[in-house]
């Protein structure tokens, strides 16, 4: 059974440094922009401006620690014999940076690291998907997957199972599969 594990908003907090950077670059963006929907930035800046900042943070991410419990999440998925695929919506030629970050932080084992803009292709019927993005959650639910995500403002109305932190997710996965 495959488990697809997202990175930003799942294993690491991208959004705190992202909002910090964006509000420095574009003063019209407030320090606390709400983010109640996935495309919250569109009323302030273009997609190109937004993703340029995201790309910068992805390059700096090697120095950012994962969220607490991320290493245990990998161990629990491995204990239950999942094929762990780490999949992140980011530039396609950055898998080596992401792999280095995973290894540095002992986020292992994993069977594959995927960095591209079409991660939905990895989703197989009935697999486990751990991802905070509304579009991925909806797609995975349509394919009969078990879907889990950290609660963020942009996914509060979604199906699947939201959790408040990775320890809660670890508990749910371990109980469900035991
Ligand atoms: Mg994410």
Structure write-up:
The chain has helices at residues 15-25, 47-60, 70-79, 95-104, 134-142, 166-177; strands at residues 2-5, 83-89, 112-116, 128-130, 146-150, 161-163. The protein has 178 residues and is α/β, with parallel strands linked by helices. It folds into 2 domains: 2-13 and 66-177, Rossmann fold (3-Layer(aba) Sandwich), CATH 3.40.50.1000; 15-63, no CATH class. Strands 3-2-1-4-5-6 form a 6-stranded parallel sheet, sandwiched between helices. α4 links the parallel β2 and β3 (112-116). α1 packs across α2 and α3 runs parallel beside α6 (166-177). The longest helix is centred in the N-terminal third of the chain and has 14 residues, at 47-60. Bound molecules: magnesium ion. Magnesium ion (MG) binds at residues 6, 8-10, 131-133. The site of magnesium ion (MG) has 7 residues, from loops.
Please describe the topology of this protein.
Layout: E1 2-5, H1 15-25, H2 47-60, H3 70-79, E2 83-89, H4 95-104, E3 112-116, E4 128-130, H5 134-142, E5 146-150, E6 161-163, H6 166-177
Parallel strand pairs: 1-2, 1-4, 2-3, 4-5, 5-6
Helix pairs in contact: 1-2, 3-6
The structure holds magnesium ion.
Brief summary:
By secondary structure, the chain is an alpha/beta fold. 37% of the residues lie in helices and 15% in strands.
Q: What distinguishing features does this structure have?
A:
binds magnesium ion; Rossmann fold; alpha/beta; six-stranded parallel beta sheet; 178 residues
